[in-house]
Specification:
heterodimer; A: seven-stranded mixed β-sheet; 7 helices; B: alpha/beta; Rossmann fold; eight-stranded mixed β-sheet; 36 strands
């Protein structure tokens, strides 16, 4: 092989490596302590087609079981993964003009620049998250730059306290505020004047819409200095489950519909504020 | 030397006409020459047979002898010059002495230029002139004034207008026999030169203007600011670039400090290295316009040691920072990151109002930053007045089919007629992929959009500035141009690039995208163009949001880029009534023209409007009716004279019937005593041209006494025709010796003597 060709190949590899370092390609984590096994949820054919909007799922270290005797949180970041993501993205494509990719992107606050390529982050079961300080610092930088984090599916006082423990590492002084019906996020796409508690799939067995002492659904948020929401906190509800199970005839359609609408509103808000 | 050989000064030859005085016909002279040539040729041919002369030598001898014969015949015909000379005591010579403050400059020794001029006149020139002519002495400033004594000269006038002064001379010449004009000056005219009309009139009346030039033609040690270019208007807190031109003598290679200030407040400063002597140098200095109001911006360069002229290191210009907040309507075809971050980028810019509409779903539009709940509630404006209320338009990833045909035409008129700014961002449904090339808007685009889809490519690319971009404020992320270029190269890559086709004439590429995968060379990324009364731009990507997310939050590159781009988009968008003046600063002059451009609600020219200019300042309050300008629909103008130095506020108000169409205000400043501080070197070129164009001569002060004798050669005034013999010129005798001597030398050389 000629020397020039060798140098060219090296240059191409390095360029590719450089690109890869900045933005990682799609990777399927199914089966790696996630809710679904490898191959159980097929990867769409167009998974590699570039799009404007990609929902990133936050991968984090879990504190483990918080409720003895209850396996809630056992999959941690991998809860509802990847079906919840895939259904959400299909819904987004159906209901809005957002140019959404068909698959999610798993990211972590690992100190690399990768997380910054995905301005919309979804964090599930954050009642079990355990952020290290450097992770918290990077998450703060991510949000300050303009990133958006939607949190969902954590319930009750114990999980709230654990959630806030890590959140305080991210924002030591920014308050968590309750959203009322006039909040812009509830009107940006759909007018969601009244919202109900959206239970998880456990409702199909328990017939109880809440988990632990999470009786009341809470819509909360953290805002930046300009009054823009940068973190959406959907507490005492399980929007992700409602979307994940939207094709399960047992799961009440009205909750799935509401979940899709709420999620679409949050995505639209993140893309317009 | 000329006079030694040719007996008379050059002027006699330039003014006179050649004649033969013996009265014999000229054809006889030619015949005589021919006969002599033939005869000499025959003799030489006869004799060459026995002598040692070949044909070439024979011809040479024949030519020399023929030349000699022709010269003798020429002298027999009695050649002379017929020249008009001024009749003594029947003509007036106007002596015009420059009395401006530049004549107070002391170039050499201890005498000022004015004193040198007086010295020249008193050394005999004035006496010689008075011996033969009636002499009128004038003091020249911005006009002409007759004086009786030279002591009345004081070199304090703030301006020199040679052209105006000569016009007065011409006016006098219509009733007086002015035979010649003598101008004693350094040529430092403040009116921008002498107009052709004045020179033509002098030529027509055949009045020669003789000039005597005073002062050094070049300063030995001087740094002079020659120009300061600034926009006359700006938005508050916007970045402006002051283009300062200057040159120097005697300080090449040294450093000097250039400062931009507003009254006592220093806005920016820069150290510059001075180029070679006499070379015009241009430096750009960036500064902030500050809040709304009138700014008196000065460009000042620190005095260097031993400068000959210390008064030309400062130049002033006026900038009106408008108290207005332009509104931009941004219609985005889909919620996307570029929209979010572009909008965030300008949120902190209080001088621009960005009103946004995003298509969130096929039948849903999300409006933000509207002035009330009803604004744009029916979607994109359908009426001209509604759309033209904005100053700028932006389109994101929007298919052209979303707008109706009348709306598309309105968008084109928005640029062309309204004078607004139009910006397209790249996207999967933008530009060619959105079918915009098949709409009227295509005409105002800065590029020839490809006539196909698939122009939007998800190709990661780095960005870099073009040479034009290096000079542009739109893409200036760092003040220093070199650092700015590097900054652009270090920006995070953009995720996609759109093919926007080749540039149209007049379009400029400011930034390029360089694909990272090696697929092809650089392509235009940011292109701008002026069109009609407005301007258009294309930013061919939807991936610049990575400049925000992939850099630290303290880095404001993305915000700065969008703020500067959008300010450029709208800062020159005119209002319905726009007032202006060719100069915001009158330097040692008082006349200017006030102009107004008046449009109706549809921004059509309102030629039937009634327009007034209300002027306030320096105790003056006046209202002038502005008249329609011929051949310019909607344009109005009126001449105005600033009565004295100071600031004047001019407000133009336009009405049509009872309806006020609009108003605008701007400031004019008159400043005296500044013009003479600049260009104080002797403008010899101007003086020489003036004299040569009019048939006069230029003299240095030490040669000026010759003028006393040479001035009589003039075709103007009361003249008499005189003839001057040429046959006895030393040049003729020298030619005779030359011809004869040459023949003798050649014969000797060839051995045929």
């Amino acid at each position: 092989m000629r020397l020039r060709t060798v140098f060219l190949l090296i240059a191409v590899c390095l360029t590719t490596w450089g690109v890869v370092q900045a933005q990682k390609p799609f990777q399927d984590y199914s089966g790696e302590n996630t809710e679904y096994a490898r191959g159980e949820i097929p990867i769409p054919d167009d998974y590699n087609v570039p799009h404007e909007f990609i929902r990133a799922r936050l991968k984090y270290t879990s504190v483990g079981i918080l409720h003895p005797g209850n396996h809630t949180g056992r999959w941690g970041w991998g809860t509802d993964y990847p079906l919840g993501d895939r259904h959400f993205l299909q819904g987004l494509r159906r209901l809005t003009l957002i140019d959404a990719r068909s698959v999610e992107q798993v990211v972590e606050a690992d100190g690399s620049d990768d997380i910054y390529n995905w301005p919309f982050l979804y964090g599930v079961e954050l009642g079990h998250w355990n952020l290290f300080q450097d992770e918290a610092d990077q998450l703060r930088e991510y949000l300050d730059r303009g990133g958006f984090l939607m949190t969902d599916d954590f319930h009750g006082t114990v999980e709230w306290e654990n959630f806030m423990k890590s959140l305080h590492k991210v924002f030591s002084s920014r308050p968590v505020l309750d959203l009322d019906n006039t909040a812009e996020v509830f009107h940006v796409l759909y007018d969601l004047k009244s919202r109900v508690q959206i239970p998880g799939a456990q409702y199909l067995y328990s017939h109880i819409p809440y988990e632990f002492d999470g009786f009341e659904p809470k819509w909360r948020a953290v805002f930046d200095d300009h009054g823009r929401m940068m973190m959406a906190i959907c507490f005492n509800q399980d929007i992700s489950d409602a979307i994940e199970n939207s094709d399960d005839p047992r799961y009440p359609a009205e909750w799935s519909n509401e979940a899709y609408r709420i999620s679409a509103n949050y995505a639209t808000y993140a893309l317009t504020h | 030397m000329f006079e030694f050989f040719f007996k008379y000064p050059r002027q006699v030859f330039s003014q006179g006409s050649f004649v033969f005085l013996n009265g014999w016909p000229v054809w006889m002279l030619w015949l005589g020459v021919l006969v002599a040539a033939a005869g000499l040729g025959y003799l030489i041919w006869r004799r060459s047979g026995g002598a040692n002369i070949n044909i070439v030598r024979s011809v040479g001898i024949w030519l020399l002898q023929t030349g000699l014969a022709a010269l003798l015949l020429f002298m027999l015909w009695h050649p002379a010059l017929s020249v008009a000379t001024l009749k003594p005591q029947q003509n007036i010579v106007a002596v015009v002495v420059d009395d401006s403050s530049s004549m107070a400059v002391v170039d050499e020794g201890s005498k000022s230029r004015k004193d040198r001029a007086v010295e020249v006149l008193n050394a005999g020139l004035l006496t010689k002139l008075r011996d033969k002519f009636q002499v009128r002495v004038y003091q020249m400033t911005d006009h002409l004034k007759k004086i009786e004594k030279l002591e009345e000269l004081n070199a304090q006038s703030p301006a020199t207008h040679i052209g105006n002064s000569l016009k007065q001379v011409i006016a006098d010449a219509s009733s007086l026999p002015i035979g010649a004009v003598v101008v004693l000056s350094d040529g430092a005219d403040n009116s921008g030169g002498i107009d052709l009309e004045t020179v033509d009139e002098l030529k027509r009346q055949r009045i020669p203007v003789h000039t005597v030039g005073f002062g050094r033609e070049q300063m030995q040690h001087d740094l002079e600011i020659t120009n300061l270019e600034l926009p006359q208007r700006a938005l508050p807190d916007s970045r402006l670039s002051a283009a300062v031109s200057f040159h120097q003598h005697g300080y090449a290679g040294q450093k000097a400090k250039l400062t931009i200030r507003d009254a006592d407040k220093v806005l920016a400063a820069k150290e510059v290295t001075l180029k070679a002597d006499g070379v015009e140098q241009l430096e750009n200095v960036l500064f902030s316009s500050g809040p709304a109001g009138v700014r008196t911006i000065q460009a000042f360069m620190d005095l260097l040691p031993n400068e000959d002229n210390k008064r030309n290191n400062i130049v002033t210009r006026m900038v009106t920072v408008d108290q207005r907040k332009p509104r931009i309507l941004y219609l985005e075809g889909e919620p996307r990151w570029e929209f979010k971050f572009a909008k965030r980028g300008v949120e902190d810019d209080k001088t621009i109002d960005l009103v946004t509409m995003v298509r969130t779903a096929p039948n849903k539009l999300y409006r933000q930053n509207v002035k009330d709940p009803h604004e744009l509630e029916d979607g994109f404006p359908k009426k001209v007045e509604e759309l033209f209320a904005f100053d700028g338009l932006m389109f994101g990833s929007l298919d052209a089919a979303y707008l109706t045909a009348p709306q598309l035409q309105m968008v084109k008129d928005f640029v062309d007629r309204r004078g607004g700014g139009l910006l397209f961002l790249g996207g999967k449904d933008s530009l060619s992929d959105g079918g915009w090339q098949s709409t009227p808007v295509n005409e105002v685009m800065p590029t020839v959009l490809p006539n196909r889809k698939d122009t939007f490519h998800w190709t990661p690319a780095n960005s870099r500035l073009t040479p034009a971009g290096a000079d542009s404020l739109i893409v200036r992320l760092e003040d220093d141009p070199v650092k700015n270029g590097k900054k652009w190269q270090s920006l995070p890559y953009i995720r996609n690039v759109q093919d926007i086709g080749p540039l149209k004439l007049g379009a400029v590429t400011l930034a390029e995208a360089v694909p990272m995968n090696g697929g092809g060379g650089a392509v235009p990324l940011l292109v701008t163009m002026n069109y009609g009364r407005g301007r258009t731009a294309v930013f061919a990507t939807s991936g610049s949001w990575r400049w925000q997310m992939l850099q630290e939050v303290s880095d404001k590159s993305h915000e700065m880029f969008y703020q500067q781009l959008l300010r450029w988009l709208v800062s020159d968008t005119p209002r319905r009534v726009t007032g202006s003046s060719p100069k915001s600063l009158l330097s040692d002059e008082s006349n200017t023209k006030l102009r107004a451009d008046v449009r109706d609600k549809s921004y059509l020219p309102a030629g039937d409007a009634i327009v007034e200019a209300r002027i306030l300042g320096q105790g003056v309050t006046e209202t002038l009716k502005m008249n329609p300008e011929p051949f310019e629909q909607g344009a109005f103008g009126v001449e105005w004279q600033a009565p004295k130095a100071g600031d004047y506020l001019v407000e133009v108000v336009a009405h049509r019937g009872d309806e006020e169409l609009g108003r605008d205000a701007f400031t004019i400043r008159r400043e005296d005593g500044m013009a003479e501080n600049f260009h104080v070197e002797q403008n010899r070129g101007l003086l020489e041209k003036l004299s040569s164009e009019t048939g006069g001569m230029y003299y240095k002060p030490e040669d000026a006494q010759k003028l006393g004798e040479e001035i009589k050669y003039s075709p103007a005034g009361i003249t008499v025709r005189e003839s001057r013999d040429l046959w006895d010129m030393p040049a003729i005798f020298a030619l005779f010796l030359l011809l004869r001597g040459a023949e003798w030398l050649l014969r000797r050389k060839w051995g045929v003597i």
